Amino acid sequence: MKIKKPFIAITIGDPAGIGPEVVVKALLKHNLHKLCRPLVVGSKKVIENTLQYCGQTAKINLIQKPWQGAYQNDIIDLIDIDNINLSKLAMGTTQAMCGQAAYDYIEKAVEITLADLSNCMVTAPINKESLRAAEINYIDHTKILANLTKTTKEPVSFIEVKGIRIFFLTHYTSLREACELVTQELVFEHIVRSIEALKNLGITQGTLAVAALNPHNSKNSFYGKEEIDQIEPAIREAQVRGYNVVGPINADIVFNRASQGYYSGVLSLYHDQGYIAAKTLDAEKITLITSGLPFLTTSVEHDTAFDIAGKRFASEINMRQAILTAIEYYSNIN
Questions:
Q1: Do 117 and 66 form a contact (C-beta atoms < 8 A)?
Q2: What whole-number distance in Å separates Cα of residue 90 and Cα of residue 15?
Q3: Spatial CB neighbours of 118, under 8 Å, sequence gap ≥ 6
Q4: H runs (alpha helix) in the chain
Q5: 303, 127 contact by CB (below 8 A)
Q6: pLDDT tens, 235-253?
Q7: pLDDT band per the 50, 70, 90 thresholds, residue 272
Q8: Sign of CA dihedral 73, 33, 145, 285
């Protein structure tokens, strides 16, 4: 059965950052309308301004409902939220107006997706400081989306690049603290959450690998004891409970094996362990995927890049990849 092209609600992110630019470039340069029906949620004034400084031309088709879109090349189908005063917009700066605007775009995209008017969401980058300036309590996409969808169980976000899916035990913490957080309880919890996240996205076959913490998998405790004392017991417990997981696998080989299709995903134990592997493989094509929401969400894996905002230097490749990944997973679960 042929899957219909999905409606994808695409937010433009913080108007002072590169979000509007990468959205416009991705849609106008890559013929994505042939694979999906991209519905932009943002400000007409911002899109017009973006087209001007990027030297692009396109018709902006204002719509209220997704089915009113043209979804053709050189046409941007837009749900317009008039929340930006262009005379006060300072590109590349933190502004409460832009933090509020970015939140408004997400809120509208969630509204139409929850109403089954869109099939999934793709988000452009937001800025934490701008959100704080707007007195918005939730300062990242996952927390905002969980709150707006009233999702009580914490969603799971992971990255994917060239078919490798990487989950994280810890994210933004010091390396010393990250090592202290490698406990049997937390490792087991994240094994379960990672495998359930894959199942939610239709990945029911394959094996999750857990990366080792210490060099050479600690070499029988010669280089550390976390593997024997914490990681291995967590893996054994998960296996007894029926979860398809292996490890710990030497961190210097586990990602290479995953790239060859040995594993359906890898649980990285700290931020740089997984991100160095992913960015070495292909930094421009990393996509952030969120599982556990009422709908599929993907996002670019870069920030608002205020230093190049408004200068037409931003690459749209990561946004294009985020849209293509949404299309792929939508087809996988439908």
A1: yes
A2: 9
A3: 7, 8, 9, 39, 66, 109, 112, 295
A4: 19-29, 44-54, 96-114, 128-133, 141-148, 175-180, 184-200, 226, 232-240, 251-259, 271-282, 317-333
A5: yes
A6: 999 999 999 999 899 999 9
A7: very high
A8: negative
Number of Cβ atoms within 10 Å of the Cβ of 242: 7
| Predicted local distance difference test score (pLDDT) of residue 1 | 41
Q: Could you give the CA distance from residue 215 to residue 202 in angstroms, rounded to a whole number?
A: 34
Shortest CA distance to 233 belongs to which of 205, 191, 180, 177?
Answer: 191
Classify each residue of 138-150 as buried b or exposed e, where b means 16 or more C-beta atoms within 10 Å of its C-beta.
ebebbebbbebbe
Structure tokens at 333: 């679960």
- The CB-side HSE value for 157 (13 A sphere, CA atoms) comes to 17
- 261 close to 85: Cβ distance less than 8 angstroms: no
Taken in order of first residue, the domains within the chain and their CATH numbers are: 7-155+292-333 (3.40.718.10), 157-280 (3.40.718.10)
40-55 burial string, b = 16+ CB within 10 Å, else e? bbbbbbbbebbbeebe
Q: What are the residues whose beta carbons fall under 8 Å from the beta carbon of 150, sequence distance 6 or more?
A: none
Task: State the amino acid at position 331 in one-letter form.
Answer: S
pLDDT over 90 at 293, yes or no: yes
Backbone angles phi, psi at 266, to 5 degrees: -130, 130
Residue with tokens 């990468």: 22
Using the 8-state DSSP alphabet, how is residue 39 labeled? E
Phi–psi pair at 187, nearest 5 degrees: -65, -45
Q: Give 139-161 as a DSSP string.
A: -SHHHHHHHHTT--SPPEEEEEE
